[in-house]
Amino acid sequence: MFIVSYINVPFIYYEGADPLNTFQIILYEGTNDIQVNYLDVRPRESARHTTTAGIENSNGTAGLQYEKFNTPGRYRNLYVMYYLGDSASPPPSDDGGSEPPPDDGFGSGEDTPPSNLFPDGSLFFPYIALDTEWNTTLYVINQDSSQAQSGVFRSYDEDGTLVSETGHITIAPNARYALPILDLAGMAGNSAYMVFVPDSESANFIGYERFYSGEEEGETIPAAKEGSALVLDIPHLASSANWRTRIVLINIKPDKRAVQIQFDSGESVYRELNSGQQLSFSVRELLGGEPRPDIHSARIFASGLVGIALFTSVNGDYDLSGILLENDKEKVICYPHVVLSENWYSALVAYTYSSSCDLTITPYSAQGEAFPALSKHISRSSRFVGTFSSLGLPEGTAWLKIEGTKALAGFQLLGSKEGGLAGFDCTTIKKRAGAIPGLDGDGIAALGMVNTEDSEAHVTLTAFQDDGEVLATKSISIPAHAKIAGTVMDLFGQEVEGVSYVTFSSDRDLVGFQVGISDTLERADALPIL
Amino acid sequence: MRRYWGVCSISLFLLLLLLGGARNAMALTGGPDRYGYTYSDSEEPGAAPFSWIDISKTGTICELGNYDMSGDIHIGFKFKFYGREYDTVRFSSSGFITFKKTSLSGSAGGEPIPTEGGLADNMIAAFWDNLATGT
């Protein structure tokens, strides 16, 4: 007999006095029966919360739901037995066939992942903005410095139907390829998202997409390279009279996915996404059509999804900004660009999905000097949001490190006084080698890097133009916890014409970013290091 | 007794115990599903009386945060579920256990059972809901 007991467990969300639930699962050796004992539980059934009980096979094609819990209430001293009936004929196969599956040893074969809809190394551009005002350009960089690599851009509609595709595009070593969607005959029509599929799985591409509308609005977002493991966190959701957030998700797996979108209000919405299907929604579209300022974050439970969050102001006073939704969470997050000036402001979001969390916020100067740390507390399934100015940071603060007692997700925003707004994810940007693209837009582009370690970093910077030719190289040292930032000319110490991106290699972990701003300061975009 | 975790939770105790036991005879109240499983509960006429097994002094205490999933826990014998045998299981903080080795997250509840392509598979859901196991 094997027993698992859950003792006095409350609900995460509960209206009223939170009851405690005590129950246990018993597995019987030999008979393979399952007994579930309920000492004292209160299952619930509402639009927001539902308790379910039952058993389910490996692919959801067979199972039983214990129907008594469909009636909310308090249940005490109750048990349920699940067992195979005494059938005269052998039970049907778990796979739906006529024969039971072979006992192939402790579940081997049970967890074989389904084959991919897209080959490894594919780049996903989850959203295409294309109308009379908006255009989208996709960028792909071949990081292989020794040989050209090729691939195909494929365009899909919202249902995941292939709309069109390019021919095979060959990209020279270290070259960057730009694909303006508007210029691509046949692609524009129903294109909801696009995928760059490399011809070789050993190819090493990175990518990003840029949305833009004249001088007033724009944003760049990294291309996704893999789907969610099981959860995507949305650290920030704005649903107010002035702000809205659009979430775009794509199921990149070859089978249908059940998606649970759970808001921090406790409400959940369920959707099914067919293979390749795109789901685009705002909070108000999903929850009754009205703004919901009480909602600030969400978790999306489903594997095999890629997604982005786009933040827009309803009246158009502010620029579009957005982030790629990431799987990963870390206990230490670095926010590499604190700007406190007359023309600029910056803000951060640190989010924990799990339990309450204490934050230690350490500001650093550009020279690496640590200022006195601040402490903040965030409660369960909550987040910390603040402008850097509201934190009362010391003068000279150039970047921040936040250490949480629990795993965090986080991103930062940069804004100009003229409405330019840009954001980038800060959760998984610590690297020893990478690229900083997006340095060739209109207006001014800058880049920055922070040495996150306790000893000096030796860094080699290389500037490339679109065809992969090296324009300049520079070796620099970044002291412990120090930051460098500026234009390409600032960092290389010389004028370098035609730079499309910069790579770096370092003997220490760096975080970095790119930020671009139009001449009018109305449009900003930003990327983390890729 | 093998210890699987070294950290204790103040709100959730997942306790394991290996004991000898026997099956109770039950009346059919639900199913069969397409594989042949049925269920019945203790309120059916003739059912054996309810008996809670207290393992608080003999089991191993484990900690899970909200929406967490444990690693592989050894059952101690081969347990057959939907035609396959398993010797390990994972615990979700959301009130279910699963034999799926790739399950990483506890996943919130509320999904009908079964659901093809759903949030959790290969599982025994005792009380699947948003349960607060974190401190």
Account of the protein in words:
- The complex is a heterodimer of chains A (530) and B (135).
- Chain A has 530 residues and is an all-beta fold.
- Among the domains of chain A are: 2-82, no CATH class; 123-222, TM1070-like (Hypothetical Protein Tm1070, Chain: A), CATH 2.60.290.11.
- Chain A is 2% helix and 49% strand.
- Chain A is built from 2 helices and 37 strands.
- In chain A, strands 24, 25, 26, 27, 28, 29 and 30 form a 7-stranded antiparallel β-sheet that branches. In chain A, strands 31, 32, 33, 34, 35, 36 and 37 form a 7-stranded antiparallel β-sheet that branches. In chain A, strands 7, 9, 10, 11 and 13 form a 5-stranded antiparallel β-sheet that branches.
- The two termini of chain A are 51 Å apart.
- Chain B has 135 residues and is mostly beta strands.
- Chain B contains no helices and 5 strands.
- β4 of chain A pairs antiparallel with β5 of chain B.
Which terms would index this structure?
heterodimer, A: 530 residues, mainly beta, Hypothetical Protein Tm1070, Chain: A, seven-stranded antiparallel β-sheet, 2 helices, 37 strands, B: 135 residues, four-stranded antiparallel β-sheet, globular, disordered N terminus
